[in-house]
Amino acid sequence: LVYPTIQLQRLAWLIGASNARRWVYEAALYDAAESHRVGYLDALSEGDAVEAAFAFGAGMAQAAPLSIAGSKAQLNAVLAGRVEHEREHLDAMVQRADGSEDFREAARAFAQKRPPVFSGR
């Protein structure tokens, strides 16, 4: 079995070259604790995984949609080595967020010491 190159590239980026080599060469099964230790899993959940996923999603749902979208696009570009290729688009996302109603709402909420209510505008 030889894995597709893109899958090995992602694995090496995610868990590091040394761990990726060990995992591929050993061809063993790894448990959640080991997967978390090397960075393959973001978190472990003692309880129900679906509940943990909903809790994670609920936290993200409280964030500003433009901020999440922009950060996701930036991270994806960085990780794909495409920042220069996508710079114009990424810069436009930053400018849109900086001039948004959500940005102003964040400033108001901070000044008023209350949680912000974002609209995605």
Net shape: flat
Note the beta-strand portion.
Answer: under 5%
Class from helix and strand fractions:
mainly alpha
Tally of discrete structural domains:
2
**Rg from C-alpha positions?**
19 Å
The overall average pLDDT, rounded, is 94
Question: For the report, how would you describe the main beta sheet?
Answer: none
Query: Count the strands?
Result: 0
Helical segment tally?
Answer: 7
Can you give the helix content as a percent range?
Answer: 55-70%
Write the layout of secondary structure elements.
Blueprint: H1 5-15, H2 17-26, H3 32-37, H4 49-61, H5 65-80, H6 83-98, H7 101-111
Helix pairs in contact: 1-2, 5-6
Protein name: Enoyl-CoA hydratase
Organism: Acidovorax cavernicola
GO molecular function, one term: catalytic activity
